[in-house]
Amino acid sequence: MTVTLTDEQALIQETARDFVDNEVVPRVRESDRAERFDRELAERLGDMGYLGAPVAEEYGGRGLDYVTYGVIVEEVGRGDSAMRTVVSVQTSLVCGSIERWGTEEQKQRWLPRLCSGEAFGCFGLTEPDTGSDAASVRTRAEKIDGGWRIAGQKMWISLGNQAEVALVFTQTDPEQAHRGMACFLVPTDSPGFSSQEIHGKLGLRSSDTASLALDGVEVPDDALMGEVGDGFKIAMSALDSGRYSVAAGCVGICQGCVDASVTYSTERKQFDVPIASFQLVQEMIADMIVRRDAARLLVRRAGELKDAGKPSTVETSVAKLYASESAVECANLAIQVHGGSGYVDDYPVERYLRDARVTTLYEGTSQIQKLIIARDATGVNAMTPVSPA
Ligand SMILES: Cc1cc2nc3c(=O)[nH]c(=O)nc-3n(C[C@H](O)[C@H](O)[C@H](O)COP(=O)(O)OP(=O)(O)OC[C@H]3O[C@@H](n4cnc5c(N)ncnc54)[C@H](O)[C@@H]3O)c2cc1C
Questions:
Q1: For residues 153 and 128, is the Cβ–Cβ distance under 8 A?
Q2: 159-171: average pLDDT
Q3: Rounded to the nearest whole angstrom, what is the distance from the C-alpha of residue 358 to the centroid of ligand 1?
Q4: Per-residue pLDDT averaged across 327-353, rounded?
Q5: Mutate to test the pocket of ligand 1, among 195, 362, 380, 383 (most ligand atoms within 8 A of CB)
């Protein structure tokens, strides 16, 4: 495993860092306070080539490797997790799925617009009664002449109010369980499609989150992505990339916590000395640095495996689990370093904690990541309860 970046990767990192410091960081507090999704800034991510960065150039992406994609996501995550969510959803969940599973026509129709930020996409898997058990989606797709009729509800969908296209995961035959699942590319201006904003979130306040209703939405046959029965595989392959992206964003939160804590502790004085002089403060900073470095290396390992085309599901779960829990831990420590000042939004650390909290929940909770990791080690699937023989 390579620990250092190539010159080209380092240059892309530097550009992303400057962009985040100059264009993202100055807007983040106001958007967070106002719970306002900043579409203009999200479109700027497209201008910079940060939406769909690993997508092939012929479809409007930059054809970057996964390690470089992770580096970009880390930088955006350091600045604003709501914007990082845009990058993760658009790139890993939506563009990545279309590129891997879509027909040539579907790729041509959607990828260039999504990569440029001219259009946004959302990933509609979760439902009011279907979360961790993704195979139990109830949204029904029924075959009609020349197409499909879709009815159901989706919950907690990032970018759901902003998106021009929704990946909608459905059940075509409940008796087939996950083998009956199908994924559709649904234009959000289709009759019967509606979205509603979800507010009152602990964090990610300026991220757009929606509940979706599909009330007999009719789509043509060519809206089906992959085959009937591929839906579950599409969802899992998307999450494999999505979890990598979330993990990289969490490394960015850890980095932001270290940066803020080093600056604050060397400036703030108590007992006539900078608080960085106190060993107990240094311990908190050292703990954050160890977490940050370990998380970054785990993300890098998962990225290199993806770039090498090797299996990486377990390594991605390890990275996502560790990086997300570390982001929560680092943010909590960073608030402690800041004392009372860490409790208000003059400093970024309280937002880091609020924003980090969801990363142990979405794209598979920490418990689900542990079950994936230990299933691989033991060969025993503990995901579903086993009744006594
Ligand atoms: C801000 C936000 C944005 C989101 N964006 C999207 C999006 O864009 N698209 C999308 O499809 N979804 C999205 N989600 C949904 C997210 O992926 C789910 O919330 C997540 O998968 C967990 O599902 P759940 O909330 O239904 O929790 P549940 O599955 O009900 O879990 C509740 C608790 O039970 C535990 N649990 C469940 N099953 C097991 C088990 N087998 N063993 C042990 N413990 C278990 C969980 O770990 C958790 O602690 C988003 C959520 C949020 C909050």
A1: yes
A2: 98
A3: 10
A4: 98
A5: 362
The whole-number average pLDDT for the span 291-310 is 98
CB count within 10 Å of CB 51 equals 30
pLDDT at 155: 98
The residue contributing the CA closest to ligand 1 atom 45 is: 367
183 lines ligand 1 (CB under 6 A): no
Give the number of other CB atoms < 10 A from CB of residue 11.
11
**231 is written with which tokens?**
């839906």
How far is the centre of ligand 1, averaged over its atoms, from the C-alpha of 243 (Å)? 13
Q: Is the CB of 132 under 6 A from ligand 1?
A: yes
What CA–CA distance (Å, rounded) separates 261 from 244? Answer: 26
What is the rounded average pLDDT for all residues in the chain? 97
Alpha-carbon 152 to chain mean position? 24
Between vectors from CA 81 to CA 78 and to CA 82, what angle results, nearest 5°? 145
Atom 35 in ligand 1: residue holding the nearest Cα? 367
Is pLDDT at 387 greater than 70 in this prediction?
no
d(CA 207, CA 31): 9
Rounded mean pLDDT of 53-66? Answer: 98
* In the block, residue with structure tokens 């800034």: 41
The CA-atom distances, in angstroms, between 7 and each of 4, 12, 48, 68, 161 are 9, 9, 19, 11, 39
The position carrying tokens 């990363």 is: 359
Cα separation, 188 vs 190, whole angstroms: 5
Question: Is 363 a catalytic site residue?
Answer: yes
Q: Residue 9: what residue type?
A: Q
Distance 154 CA to ligand 1 centre (A): 13
How far is it, in rounded angstroms, from Cα 151 to Cα 217? 7
CA of 150 to the centre of ligand 1 (A): 23
- Helices first, then strands: H and E counts in the chain: 12, 10
CA 370 / ligand 1 centre spacing (Å): 14
Q: Confirm or reject: Cβ of 383 under 6 Å from ligand 1.
A: yes
The Cα 322–Cα 237 span in angstroms is: 20
What's the rounded Cα separation, in Å, for the pair 353 and 347?
Answer: 12
What's the pLDDT score for residue 24?
98
176 lines ligand 1 (CB under 6 A): no
**366 in Cβ contact with 321 (< 8 Å):** yes
Using a 6 Å cutoff on CB, does residue 12 contact ligand 1?
no
